[in-house]
Amino acid sequence: MISGKLKSKLAGGSAIRKMFEEGNRLKAIYGAENVYDFSIGNPDLEPPKEVFDALKELALNPVPGMHGYMSNSGYESTRAIIAEKRSKESESGVKVDAGAICMTVGAAAAMNDVFHSILDDGDEVILLAPFFMEYIGYVENHNGKPVIVDTDSKFMPDISKIEAAVTAKTKAIVINSPNNPSGVVYSKELLCSLNEMLLKQDHVIHVIADEPYIDLAYDGVKVPSVLDCFKNLIVCFSWSKSLSLPGERIGYTLVSPNHEDYEDLTAAIVLSNRTLGSVNAPAIWQRVIEKSLYAKVDVSNYEYRRNLLYSNIVDAGFDAVKPSGALYIFMNTPNGLTDQEFADICAKQNLLVVGGKSFSRPGYCRLAFCVSEVSIKNSRKAFFKVAEELGLKHRAEL
Amino acid sequence: MISGKLKSKLAGGSAIRKMFEEGNRLKAIYGAENVYDFSIGNPDLEPPKEVFDALKELALNPVPGMHGYMSNSGYESTRAIIAEKRSKESESGVKVDAGAICMTVGAAAAMNDVFHSILDDGDEVILLAPFFMEYIGYVENHNGKPVIVDTDSKFMPDISKIEAAVTAKTKAIVINSPNNPSGVVYSKELLCSLNEMLLKQDHVIHVIADEPYIDLAYDGVKVPSVLDCFKNLIVCFSWSKSLSLPGERIGYTLVSPNHEDYEDLTAAIVLSNRTLGSVNAPAIWQRVIEKSLYAKVDVSNYEYRRNLLYSNIVDAGFDAVKPSGALYIFMNTPNGLTDQEFADICAKQNLLVVGGKSFSRPGYCRLAFCVSEVSIKNSRKAFFKVAEELGLKHRAEL
User: Fold this and answer.
1) Contact assignment for A68 to B44 by CB distance below 8 Å
2) Which pick of A268, B276, B348, B379 has the fewest CB atoms within 10 Å?
3) A chain contacts of residue B261, beta-carbon cutoff 8 Å
């Protein structure tokens, strides 16, 4: 009695969800402090003070109609200040105006709005593995076909591989930098080369930049503005991580003023935002954002925990690309083990990870470092024990 | 470069949106107080005090994690108290528990979640005309096919007509009472007969009760609990009208515990809520609802304005079924005029209405009475002038 497509998805379940349940089982047996659960990427910092202050101010000084409908694209004043910020961030002087922006119920709704707006049945969307597993559902919701192209051993896109995957049906490519799950940040040069290749094709290919992690970069790495890199660009943004508001569902879409189909596309996204059921982004969070747009969570705290977890991994003897951003380390499974074999060995030490297969990149596993400092510190011995069991040579003392 | 389906929808535009623009044009010429704009159904009462108090309390006493992720179905405590309320409202003792409920980004997202969960390509959904025009988009978003069945001259469903429209592909029927645009409330007897007919069919047909207006009933009319009427029931609820929170996007789905496919369906809706991009309903509004669930906007205020507008219409000489609920009067176009002809004559008196064609019921027009009392009072002379132009006999003094 439910949709056939959904039935098979329900049967498959979610690998992350399964780890979540395994985690609860282990915590019940060994105590929460003795289970090192790196499986869930739940941003755990509190929102910055500016957010709490703005919410308080709004709650204490209600104005008539503040919880009512507004335009489906959101408040003009909120969109204008975001447009101003994005314009300032562009080094090449790309000017964004409020009309380019549609406020959305987070980046997930933004991506659904965008795919609904651009995809005809069977249109292809290129996804660069490893990628956030939900992308496949987002594309398929709107009758699109995901086309998976692998990145190199440092998780960097290979332009010629991408070009080889382009067909007459290719409608879009998704770019996610800082990347979930690899944590890598793409350089401006790389993104500009990708743009050049795309513009050489004989039809427009939209670049969808999914940017929930844009404010989470470490080691002084600067994430380039995609406005400076791409012509036919659509940004999907969320404050889930930048302001630690994942439960409140607030984000936006932005169409580059240089996009060849700017007028139709901005109108189509607003229409999709309405008909897909969001109607508009929550009014109060649009108002909070307007008051706290330049605030950020304490990124150095995430950086500190990344360092701790990364040291555990490499000191124990494992290999991993050090992430420059986001909330994850995507480490190689050692000794040619499959994801599952490695995850099972880890679980014996109460160490929970998600296999790379869930991100369309087997032979790896993802560890989220947005878990407590204590848990990361205590997990060090578990990493060392797993390494010993696998005959790996430690690179430092326990 | 945008989806072909969207392209044609954008070209068509929205009749209500066009009236909105016409209204702005007229207001610029004649002044806002001299334009009687009944085209938009924007609930204009402020939320009740309990809502403001709850928001203030939350803003002044933040607790860690209150803006973070929760289960995709929403907070257990919020769902439990809603379940309790719905159980109490059932006269036949249907017991709802928290697991039946998934918190959503309003009723529009709820309906998209439901259609995504139940529809396979080409599945049919019966809609009873007149109906809220967005239903067609909601069904088509998920590759379903709307099948329109007319109601009678009092806008009441005709069970035998509905039965005649059932095919092997019929997956669901949408019930909306109090109804937009007609304002009628269906009786318990009628709904139970519909249930009986549906259960006689040789496959399950889901009943989707879209209930945004359930708390807006007048003249002491009691809206029956659909839990007492239907077996294979899915409710889509929103607080947009009950608590006047349309801009905040908060509602829920509820699957009847008697539904034949309860387990799969509740799981599928939560999955759809995630993958369609809502992920979860805004955290803060779930918490506000928990604290103000039994509050309601001042319904008597809407009733008063309904009375004013209804008197204008019938006193001038027009015919309309008096609405027992919702925010609209759905009046007959006189003298066999088409919707457009009648709307044009009204517009000459600065009186803005939406043609019934937009609700799949030509020969009528919808007037929203959630506009200012002054505007409704001042519009009386415009109704009388239109009536005179059409040679109708007044039933009362101006």
Assistant:
1) yes
2) B348
3) 1-2
- Residues of chain B in contact with residue A64, where contact means CB-CB under 8 angstroms, are 46
Contacting residues of A for B206, CB less than 8 Å apart? 1
Per-residue tokens: A40: 């869930």
For the record, the structure tokens of B244 come out as 């006047």
Closest C-alpha to B314, from B292, B329, B325: B329
Question: Considering the entire predicted model, what is its pTM?
Answer: 0.97
* CA-based max dimension of chain B: 68
The answer to whether B155 and B321 are in contact (CB under 8 A) is: yes
* ipTM, two decimals: 0.96
Cβ of B47 under 8 Å from any chain A Cβ? yes
Residue of A70, A106, A113 lying closest to B247 (CB–CB): A70
Contact criterion met (CB < 8 Å) for B6 and A46: no
Q: What is the pLDDT along chain A (398 residues), one digit of tens a residue?
A: 899 988 888 877 666 667 777 888 888 899 888 899 999 888 999 999 999 999 999 999 999 999 999 999 999 999 999 999 999 999 999 999 999 999 999 999 999 999 999 999 999 999 999 999 999 999 999 999 999 999 999 999 999 999 999 999 999 999 999 999 999 999 999 999 999 999 999 999 999 999 999 999 999 999 999 999 999 999 999 999 999 999 999 999 999 999 999 999 999 999 999 999 999 999 999 999 999 999 999 999 999 999 999 999 999 999 999 999 999 999 999 999 999 999 999 999 999 999 999 999 999 999 999 999 999 999 999 999 999 999 999 999 99
Bridge partners of residue A329, in order along the sequence? A367
- Residues within 8 A of B (CB atoms), A 328-387 only: none
Residues 6+ apart with CB under 8 A from A321: A154, A155, A182, A183, A184, A330
Q: Do B6 and A117 touch (CB under 8 A)?
A: yes
DSSP β-ladder status, A206-210 and A233-238: parallel
B122 to A3, A287, B162: CA distances (angstroms): 11, 41, 19
B256 neighbourhood in chain A, CB within 8 Å: none
Contacts of A264 in chain B (CB under 8 A): 1-2, 7, 10
When CB atoms are compared, the residue of B10, B67, B246 closest to A248 is: B67
Tokens of B188: 């318990």
pLDDT of residue A381: 97
User: Do residue B277 and residue A10 have CB atoms under 8 angstroms apart?
Assistant: no
Residue A119 phi/psi, 5-degree rounding, is: -90, 130
Which of A 276-315 lie inside 8 A of B, CB atoms? 276-285
Summarised one tens digit per residue, pLDDT across range B62-75 is 999 999 999 999 99
- Which residues 182-211 of A have a C-beta within 8 angstroms of B? 204, 206
The verdict on a CB contact (< 8 Å) between A264 and B106 is: no
**Angle CA A198–A212–A67, to nearest 5:** 120
Separation CA A387–CA A371 (nearest Å)? 22
CB of A278 within 8 A of CB of B111? no
Cβ atoms of A154 and A130 within 8 Å: the answer is no
Please name the residue ranges forming H helices in chain B.
4-12, 15-30, 49-60, 76-89, 106-118, 134-141, 159-165, 188-200, 262-275, 283-292, 299-316, 339-348, 373-378, 380-389
Most B CBs within 10 Å: which of A113, A245, A279, as the mutation test of the B interface? A279
Element (H, E) at B236: strand B233-238
